[in-house]
Design goal:
234 residues, alpha/beta, TIM Barrel, binds orotidine-5'-monophosphate
């Protein structure tokens, strides 16, 4: 039986009014809203808290620095009470362990965010990855970084839906798998390379899919989000 797959709506904008309107539009369909680098840098972290309101917040800051700095950053943002928080697995074991330790110390036990390690960005294909020095392909790198992240105490992985099956084979059912690079049939891939439709990602076993522009750039974001939620419900 397929796992239940939820929708996370990526609200990528610089404008708090637009973000708030999108958050309201996707509210009935999405299990969380994702606010990330663009919004936080432009609007500030108080606006992040305001837009999320009572909706679970996926805080996508993709932390990647030395362990001391990442640990301190996690402590500093604990007041935002994110439900999920991202960091780059390529920052290494000690960096991820520092993030986990900071979470354990700075958050109440019942409010610790789910830590998600980004493995290989969905905008990278094997060729682009090879240009960074990783020559055995996205799948192998996702597996390598996924194993490392879990050993370091990370709760889940951000990957493309193409890597779900090999990750489940290698790591079992426990890790949360969160997949961006989702495109409903007929929509533009844009800068995304390793893409799947919502229904395909559900069949593959994603716990969450992350969808931005196919919702936010639709003529009717509420309807676009509802259609994706319906596709996930099968
Ligand atoms: O961490 C992420 O959320 C993320 C990781 C990744 O590998 N690929 C990826 O697209 N994302 C995010 O997922 C969202 C995808 O947006 P759309 O391409 O507009 O659907 C963006 O906010 C990205 O920052």
């Amino acid at each position: 039986m397929a796992r239940q797959t939820g929708l996370i709506a990526a609200l990528d904008t610089q404008d708090p009014v637009t973000a708030k309107a999108w958050a309201q539009a996707v509210g009935p369909s999405a299990g969380a809203v994702k606010l990330g680098l663009e919004f936080a840098y432009a609007a500030g972290f108080q606006a992040v808290a305001d837009v999320a309101g009572s909706t679970p917040l996926f805080l996508d800051l993709k932390l990647h620095d030395i362990p001391n700095t990442v640990g301190a950053a996690v402590r500093a943002l604990s007041y935002l009470r994110p439900r999920m928080l991202t960091l780059h697995a390529s920052g290494g074991r000690a960096m991820m362990e520092a993030a986990r330790q900071a979470c354990d110390e700075a958050f109440p036990a019942d409010a610790r965010p789910v830590l998600l390690a980004v493995t290989v960005l969905t905008s990278l294909d094997d060729h682009a990855l090879a240009e960074t020095g990783v020559t055995d392909g996205a799948r192998a790198q996702v597996l390598r970084l996924g194993k490392l992240a879990l050993q370091a105490g990370i709760d889940g992985l951000v990957c493309s839906a193409h890597e779900i099956a090999p990750l489940r084979d290698a790591l079992g059912d426990a890790p949360l798998l969160v997949t961006p690079g989702i495109r409903p049939a007929g929509s533009q891939a844009g800068d995304q390379k390793r893409v799947m439709t919502p229904g395909e990602a559900r069949q593959a076993g994603a716990d969450w899919i992350v969808v931005g522009r196919p919702i936010t750039q639709a003529a009717d974001p509420a309807a676009a989000a509802a259609a994706i939620a319906a596709e996930l419900a099968g």
